[in-house]
Amino acid sequence: MGKNLTDFSEDLPAREYLAHRYEASELPSLPLADEDFVREWEIWLASKRAAVPDVDDIFSDEAVASWLQETPAGRIPVLYASSRTSFERAMNVLYPGVFSTGIQASVNAFTVQTRHPALCGHRVILLNKAGYSSLSGKEVGMSEEEWHEKSLTIRLNHEVCHYFSLRVLGGMQNHVLDEIAADCVGQLAAFGAYNASLQRRFFGISESGGDILPGNRFSFYVKKLLINDSIREVLEETNAALSGLESYLSKNPYMLLESNRPHLTIKILSAGIRGIHDLTSISFVPYPFWCKDGARKRERNKKGIGEIS
């Protein structure tokens, strides 16, 4: 079992922020057994009827697709809204009262532990149809239809990565390190390769890595760094990490394989931002590669770890 090695206070210096990483030891076999609540969703999704009226309303919305996603951390329910209205309505069902004034327009995905009283302890991935990181198809050289398809793949695999971190390493945070790992997994799923320049565009930082651009996503993850010098240091280290990750993957193409993504995720999250430039040196207890024949492996791994609270 891994653990989060830092608990952040307000007004962090760069040193403390950059110390964030996860400890990886005594890793379980993959995939993990499903969490207990998944069985309820399996029954609901099979019939498209839920025992909870509010969830039933989501299922009856034609703008929301729903399924159980196979992941290395066990299956998890996914709700994919093709309209902003349906996305916000579903979010307010799962997280009642929290977003009563609306959800920020740039936010199009959540991995939530629901606060609905009838769904205690349930975890759900909720996605909206939109260009990833608020980029348009034109900005990435694709048609809008193709870019929305790629964005769904990136966004889904990004959230799956957070779920993996939560169950296997004991936590997830709105932190640049966690986002580097999750976006890396998303890029590999969508494109089969990792592009540091594209990641800078996702974060909203300049190609040189020295400036934060208007409307950027990066600022959200460093909002506790109120001192400009601290933000600048984290920005520089992030830029170096993205280049280092691209170099590592170009020299180790076997890590691009889907079966190796859990391994890669753990390497990134256990390295920390400053350690990503030298992922080759990161080692941990080995475990079997993951593949998607989930039913057979779940049967073999019924004693996997349970829910992490």
Topology at a glance:
Elements: E1 3-4, H1 14-18, E2 22-23, H2 38-47, H3 53-59, E3 64-69, E4 76-81, H4 84-94, E5 109-113, E6 123-128, H5 144-169, H6 176-191, H7 196-203, H8 218-221, H9 228-251, H10 261-271, H11 294-300
Parallel strand pairs: 4-6
Antiparallel strand pairs: 1-2, 3-4, 5-6
Helix pairs in contact: 5-6, 5-10, 6-10, 7-9
Describe this protein with a few key phrases.
309 residues; two-stranded antiparallel ribbon; 42% helix; 9% strand; globular
Number of domains: 1
Question: What's the alpha carbon Rg, rounded to whole Å?
Answer: 19 Å
Shape: globular
Sheet of most strands: 4 strands, mixed
Helix-and-strand structural type: alpha+beta
Order of strands, main sheet, comes to 3-4-6-5
Query: How much helicity do the residues have?
Result: 40-55%
Q: Which runs of at least 5 residues are low in confidence (pLDDT < 50)?
A: 1-9, 294-309
Number of strands: 6
Question: For the terminal residues, how far apart are their CA atoms?
Answer: 13 Å
Total of helices: 11
**SSE arrangement, N to C:** EHEHHEEHEEHHHHHHH
Overall pLDDT level: 87
Determine the strand fraction and express it as a percent band: 5-15%
